[in-house]
Amino acid sequence: MLKWLNYHHLLYFREIARHGSMANASKALLIGQSTLSTQLKQLEDNLGQRLFDRKNKKLILTETGRVALEYAEEIFKKGEEFLQVFNEQSLTSRTIYRVGVVASAPKSVACSIMQMAKKFDPHSIISMQEDSPGNLLEKIQTHKLDIALTNNISVMGQEDLQIKAVGEDQVSLFGSADFKYLINDYPKSLVTVPMILPTMHSKLRYDLEQSFRDLGIKYKLVAEVQDSSVKKNLGMQGVGLIALPEFAASSFVKEKKLFKIGEVPGVKEEYWLVSKKRKISSPLTDQITSAFNVYME
Predict the structure, then answer these.
(1) Is pLDDT at 88 greater than 60 in this prediction?
(2) What is the pTM assigned to this prediction?
(3) Are 125 and 263 in contact (CB under 8 A)?
(4) What percentage of the chain's residues is helix, strand, coil (to nearest 5)?
(5) 130-159 pLDDT per residue, tens
(6) Which domains, ranges and CATH numbers included, belong to the chain?
(7) In the chain, at which end, N or C, are there fewer CB atoms within 10 A of the end residue's CB?
């Protein structure tokens, strides 16, 4: 039975898992490969279980290894917070809470997560970053994020994730004043009209394509853009029609920079809060997930 834990062994194990090979971890740690290999073997011997399978010169985490990595990430995350508290000579409990937000998410919803985190833990430091759904998943799985707001859970293996639907909104087509004439006889007026659509890996692109097929619309694709800010700018410049959730376009419509051409039947943008189910629970994540309730306006 393991009586005590050598934290150097745990650190070396985490770096090997992160880099995927002994050679890369050795370079990162400035430690010889033979020394690193010996340290890993000692940890595996102490645990009585293998942490890696060796396939094609690569080290692949075993099921035990994945569990061990979860604990290692939690342990070293707390260690980083410990050092920050004492380096700042403040004994206040200051937790760095990491929030991920998909780039196209409504900023009001993202701000709500931050406000709720501060409400439940006033001393927490909120670190918020934007990313793609796929990258958000990877960061959730590797404990680089505590919670994420995403609009695509189809890329996520859901068994080890906690997922909560937090809102949805109708998707419509918007364009500059040059396209206002399309409102008459919509959606038939869309034939051969230039459009700026999300990239092919996007669920929204799939839903739009399906709706256009059902309507018998053959449009003219002029650009594929995932970033919502770029998409809005191109739309306002008159490059083509853009598809947006109505809440995302509302301020531009009020300023008459964009005009609503028409709703896309059956297409809605949905948002979810996602976090990883942990053996070491996060009270703040549980409180936010339980209390969060958003209605898109």
Answers:
(1) no
(2) 0.60
(3) no
(4) 45, 25, 30
(5) 888 888 888 888 778 889 998 877 655 667
(6) 7-68 (1.10.10.10), 79-167+271-291 (3.40.190.10), 168-268 (3.40.190.10)
(7) N
